[in-house]
TrEMBL record:
Enzyme class, first EC level, given as a word: hydrolase
Binding residue positions for Zn(2+): H16, H18, H196, D277
Stated family: Belongs to the metallo-dependent hydrolases superfamily. Adenosine and AMP deaminases family. Adenine deaminase type 2 subfamily.
Top-level taxon of origin: Bacteria
Cofactor: how and how many bound: Binds 1 zinc ion per subunit.
Site (Important for catalytic activity): H220
Name of the featured protein: Adenine deaminase
C-alpha cells in the first residue's frame, strides 16, 4: 500500500525488541534439526498456529521453549542477522536490542557464546546495512535478585559491548523494588537502565521503575493512563515509553487495536515510540505495528512521522548522530 511504502521510507529506531522473540518458526525447526532437539509440534504451521495467547505468561511459556533450540554462537548470529535484514527492509536505521542471558545460561550455554553471536551480527549489520546498534542485557524478573547479580557478574568481561540493563518476563508480583540493588550496582558500573513496567502490571510499577531503578525509558508503560498525575509527569519529563501495539493486542492487554491508547498519549505530549517486541510471535515487524495503529486509530502522516522522530529522541544515539535522523 502507499502508506506502507511511505512508512518503510521513514527513518526509524527500534528500541523494544527481544532478539529471542525474532526467532521465526522456520528457524526453530531448522535449528532443532541441526541440534537434534525434539519439538512438541509436528510442523512449522502447527507451531505458528500455537501462537494464540491469552496473556503474557502463555506467550512466555512458548517463547522460552522456542529459545531452547539456540545452542551455539552460529545460531545467535543467524537469528540476529535475520532480524537485521527484516529491520533494514522496514527502514530501521538504529536498533537497541534486548537479550535474556539467563534463558541460555540456565541451559548450560556460556554468556560469551550468546553475546559473541549477537554482537558479530550487529557489527556486520552496521557495515552491510548501515544499522547502528546498542545491546541491552535483561534480567528475568521471575527469578531472584541474587540470580540477576550473578548474571551481571558474568557479563562484566563483555561490559564494553553492553550499553544498558533492562528488566523483563512476568511482571505481576515482581515489582521494580525486587531489583533495586542490582540496578544500583549496574548504574555505578556505568550501564543505562530501562525496565518493562505497566504492561500487565499496575501504573505504580512505572512510578517505581523511575523512582527506585532510575530508568531513562519505560518499556510498554501503557497502563500509565490509570494514573493521570503520572501521565502528566511522563509528558513533562519526556520520559519515553517504548510501546508495542501488536504485542498488546496479541497478549490481550487490549481486546482490540481501536482501544489502544498510543494515539491519546501522543496527543497528550508523551514521548511514545512504536516497536515490535517479539515480532516472530506477535504477527509483525515494526512497519506492521505502525500500520496497525495508523488504521485502527486513524493517525495522520504527521502523527506517524512524529512517532518516528520520537524513536530517535528516546534512543541512546550520540546527539550529533541523532540530529542526522530528526
Ligand atoms: C516480553 Cl512482551 C514481553 N513482556 C515481558 N517480557 C518479555 N520478554 C519477551 N517479551
Ligand atoms: Zn518486551
Amino acid at each position: 500500500s502507499p502508506l506502507a511504502a511511505w512508512l518503510r521510507g521513514l527513518p526509524k529506531a527500534e528500541l523494544h525488541l527481544h532478539i529471542e522473540g525474532t526467532l521465526e518458526p522456520e528457524m526453530v525447526f531448522a535449528l532443532a534439526d541441526k541440534h537434534r532437539v525434539p519439538l512438541a509440534y509436528a510442523s512449522v504451521d502447527a507451531l505458528r498456529r500455537a501462537y494464540d495467547f491469552d496473556d503474557l505468561q502463555s506467550f512466555l511459556d512458548l517463547y522460552y521453549a522456542g529459545a531452547d533450540v539456540l545452542r551455539d554462537e552460529v545460531d545467535f548470529h543467524a537469528m540476529t542477522a535475520a532480524y537485521l535484514r527484516r529491520a533494514a527492509a522496514d527502514g530501521v536505521v538504529h536498533v537497541e536490542i534486548f537479550f535474556d542471558p539467563q534463558t541460555h545460561t540456565a541451559r548450560g550455554i556460556d554468556i560469551g557464546t550468546v553475546i559473541g553471536g549477537i554482537h558479530r551480527a550487529l557489527v556486520e549489520g552496521e557495515r552491510e546495512l548501515g544499522i547502528s546498534h546498542r545491546l541491552i542485557l535483561c534480567f528475568l524478573r521471575h527469578l531472584s535478585e541474587a540470580e540477576a547479580e550473578a548474571t551481571l557478574d558474568a557479563a562484566l568481561p563483555y561490559r564494553t559491548l553492553i550499553a544498558g540493563v533492562g528488566l523483563d518476563s512476568s511482571e505481576r508480583g515482581h515489582p521494580p523494588q525486587k531489583f533495586a540493588r542490582v540496578f544500583a550496582r549496574a548504574a555505578s558500573l556505568g550501564f543505562k537502565r530501562v525496565a518493562h513496567a505497566g504492561e500487565e502490571g499496575p501504573a505504580a510499577y512505572i512510578r517505581d521503575a523511575i523512582d527506585v531503578l532510575d530508568v531513562c525509558r519505560i518499556d510498554h508503560g501503557v497502563r500509565c493512563d490509570e494514573d493521570p498525575a503520572l501521565v502528566a509527569q511522563l509528558a513533562a519529563t519526556r520520559m519515553p515509553l517504548t510501546v508495542c501495539p501488536l504485542s498488546n493486542t496479541k497478549l490481550k492487554v487490549y481486546a482490540q487495536m481501536q482501544q489502544h491508547n498510543i494515539g491519546r498519549l501522543l496527543r497528550a505530549g508523551l514521548c511514545v515510540t512504536v516497536n515490535s517486541d517479539d515480532p516472530a510471535y506477535f504477527g509483525g515487524y515494526v512497519v506492521d505495528n505502525y500500520l496497525a495503529i495508523a488504521d485502527a486509530l486513524s493517525l495522520s502522516r504527521a502523527e506517524l512521522a512524529q512517532l518516528a522522530r520520537q524513536s530517535f529522541e528516546a534512543s541512546w544515539l550520540d546527539d550529533a548522530v541523532r540530529q542526522q535522523w530528526i
